[in-house]
Amino acid sequence: MAHRVRIHPRSTILFQGDSITDASRLNDPQGLGYGYVRNLVESLSLALPDHELTFVNRGVSGNRVRNLEERWKQDALDLNPDIVTIMIGINDMWRAFDNNDPTSAIAFEGGYDRILYKLTEKSSTQIVLIEPFMLCVRDEMWLWRSDLDAKIQAVRRLAQKYDLPLVGLDSAMSQAASLRGMAAIAGDGVHPTPAGHKVLANAVLSVFDLES
Predict the structure, then answer these.
(1) In this model, does residue 212 exceed pLDDT 70?
(2) Is the distance from CB of 75 to CB of 58 less than 8 angstroms?
(3) In whole angstroms, what is the distance from residue 30 CA to residue 16 CA?
């Protein structure tokens, strides 16, 4: 496993992704949204009260990798983040089934690779990759798994390629659902409930080194 992420004082932490990261951030006066990002901010602020951290949420509902690539300069590189977490992929899978606009696994991995390369050119930026996940709450969703699994494997390969911490979210959410029921974690199988966001936040928190 890649090294854990050490948070230095006065770090800027950027959260990137789709609606799961977005979590209605534009309706939140703090701009954090009402999902796992807020949970993480609360946990990190409590654990590191003297670090004077800056938190920035730039998740955008409906985004795919190609959307991240289009806005990567203004929404990532220009912000000069010290740490970036990225959770993307569910829409790259979903659009193949809800409007027949698929993203191939090759295109997904290629676009993801390009945005990571641009970040790694900034040698001081630490990056955390978060797997997409899905709970099969409807029978037809089992037919979607092979497409999502190919994208999860792509994220895992990229984590290896760049030696990045990887959050194994698909298994973490599945384990939580097996204990509490899928409806308690993500009612539609994709968007976490408040309890699901806490599971997600705890999974991401596990890759940070919070010891002084």
Answers:
(1) no
(2) yes
(3) 16
Per-position DSSP letters for 77-96, written without gaps between them = GGG--SEEEEE--HHHHHHH
Q: Span 199-207, mean pLDDT?
A: 98
For residue 10, what are its two tokens? 């006065």
- Collect all residues with Cβ–Cβ distance below 8 Å to 134 and sequence separation of at least 6: 90, 93, 141, 144, 145, 148, 170, 189, 190
Q: Are 166 and 87 in contact (CB under 8 A)?
A: no
Q: Residue 201 and residue 60: Cα distance in Å, rounded?
A: 18
**Rounded Cα gap, residues 42 and 144, in angstroms:** 34
First vs last C-alpha separation in the chain: 21
154, 105 contact by CB (below 8 A): yes
C-alpha angle 15-75-27 in degrees, rounded to nearest 5: 65
Task: Give me the count of residues in the chain.
Answer: 212
Which one, of 119, 124, 209, lies nearest residue 161 by Cα?
Answer: 119
Both tokens of 142, joined, read 């089992």
Q: Which residues have CB under 8 Å from 137's CB, separation 6+?
A: 182, 183, 186, 187, 188, 189
Give the pLDDT confidence of 1-13 residue by residue, as tens digits.
567 899 999 999 9
